[in-house]
Amino acid sequence: MSADELALLSNAEIDIEGRMPWSSNATFLITVTGGDRTTRAIYKPTRGERPLWDFAPGLHRRELAAYRLSEALGLGLVPPTVIRDGPLGEGSVQWFVDVDHRQHFFTMYEERPELHDALRAVALFDVLANNTDRKSGHVLVGDDGHVGGSDHGLCLAPELKLRTESWVFGGDTVPEPLPAARPRVDA
Q: 10: how many CB neighbours lie within 10 A of its CB?
């Protein structure tokens, strides 16, 4: 993701297209427009967050932290995410990824062995992020073939609460390409 694209998410005008169905918190499909650039994104305002007994308020901050962790590890699994003020107050704004919603973790695992290493990367990320809410439908394959994840507001719990559909890889050795995805240090 380029700095220009992150700037678009951070600064462009937001128009709400509609609420995303089946979301437990307020989640909106939006259009962001800045200059001659327009793209779709997902907006999760803090104001629409349902309180949880075991997480402090601030799903939007954990969405951003998950993006930053994915980028620091070089995994590129979480769509670019920023925190900004929007029509319903502060929240996360995340790049929208076009996907085939018939594909999810289990269809990819069972029908697409060529994606197993990418799914292992998701499993590794889930362990490192202490993801407590990885559902099959939160693992997506974009129209470009890239495997990633969505809905990371319940990551980074202070206690171990790992809940992931990726347990199918439990006990596997981390494959050789993944150790290369270590945190990078920018000079």
A: 15
Looking only at Cα atoms, what is the longest distance across the chain?
50
Closest C-alpha among 73, 166, 161, 158 to residue 115: 166
CA atoms within 13 A on the CB side of 8: 21
Q: Tell me how far apart the alpha carbons of residues 155 and 134 are, in angstroms, rounded to a whole number.
A: 9
d(CA 50, CA 68): 24
pLDDT digits 0-9 by tens, 71-100 = 988 889 999 999 999 999 999 999 999 988
* Cα–Cα distance measured from residue 115 to residue 22, given in angstroms and rounded to the nearest whole number: 27
- Single pTM value for the model: 0.88
Mean pLDDT of 15-32: 92
CA distance 59 to 79: 15
**pLDDT of amino acid 49:** 87
Number of H helices, E strands in the chain: 4, 7
